[in-house]
Amino acid sequence: MTEASTPDTSRGTILVINGPNLNLLGTREPEKYGTSTLPDVEQLARLAAEAHGFAVECVQSNHEGVLLDVIHAARETAAGIVINAGAFTHTSVALRDALAAVQLPAVEVHITNVHQREKFRHHSYLSPVCAAVIVGAGVTGYRLAIDYLAETL
Length: 153
Prior knowledge:
single chain; 5-stranded parallel sheet
């Protein structure tokens, strides 16, 4: 990329958080989650953010405490958050409290339609503190989440 074509990211940074097992995208149950890998998702997010003048920071962890630390740090570094907390969506009051505490607009994303899946996946601790929730749009949901944040920031 030449100097002249360097993307304008002057609007700030959007933090994209992926929780447990999302490092296995592309190989984990491709009939449910598709064949896109986590690097594919991160590139999609980067391009979507840059199209709106944002940088993107992508983080994936299988450890709840790491995700909490990343959310806390976002208070000083991010304009908004896109979060696919995976199974922690349905279990983590701590992640819910962290999102509420940092007071950044957040969009919850799920690759599959969780409402068509097991009953325990129907409840989200995160939804009440997120500005929007996108479910069942595949990895395109990440782009939709970034588009939403870009329009509202």
